[in-house]
Design a protein that fits this description.
With 173 residues, the chain is of the alpha/beta class. Helix 5 packs parallel to helix 6.
Length: 173
């Protein structure tokens, strides 16, 4: 007899299944919107509809610099990101009803970046559950979620369904 999955595992499995639709060459990310125990939407990262994606046209990388205070000293941190891809969380917000987001949870394969965190913080969701950390923005994102009172938690012991977890090709993560 197989053991019944808990709700966190069930919904994070769905986020990983959504991520299998991504054609990004660097990272496959999936997200689902849940209210109570009801799935309201699913999304993944990729280029806008009808536009060549990274697997067809290559990544459109830009470099950014950020001033961070590390151990009392300001340091310039170089970041690289693809601007061809719409993030899974952004697609989820684009394709779900704003009233459905009120008091809902988002399950996402990866910790949201700063931009997605800002958007989620303003969307009405009250909880974000993720699996893989995203170290580039982790400190800022965690502080934002605390300020907004959004439950923000990582499922560290979670294991994705077989065949859904692509290797991350971003060395800065």
């Amino acid at each position: 007899m197989t053991t019944r999955k808990d709700w966190d595992t069930y919904f994070l499995d769905m986020a990983y299944m959504a991520s299998t639709r991504s054609r990004c060459t660097r990272r496959h990310v999936g997200a689902v919107l849940v209210q109570g125990k009801k799935l309201l939407g699913a999304a993944y990262n990729g280029a806008p509809m009808g536009v060549p994606d990274c697997s067809e046209a290559g990544c459109m990388l830009v470099e950014e610099y950020e001033l961070q205070n590390l151990e009392g000293a300001e340091q310039v941190i170089k970041k690289q990101r693809c601007i061809r891809t719409i993030h899974a969380e952004q697609n989820l917000l684009l394709f779900t009803d704003p009233k459905d987001r009120e008091n809902s949870a988002v399950y996402v394969t990866d910790q949201p970046c700063w931009t997605c965190s800002n958007m989620l913080a303003n969307s009405g969701v009250t909880e974000i559950v993720y699996h893989r950390p995203y170290n580039k923005d982790s400190t800022k994102v965690t502080a934002l979620m605390e300020q907004k009172g959004i439950i923000f938690r990582r499922l560290e012991t979670y294991t994705p369904p077989p065949g859904t977890s692509e290797p991350i090709k971003d060395p800065l993560v």
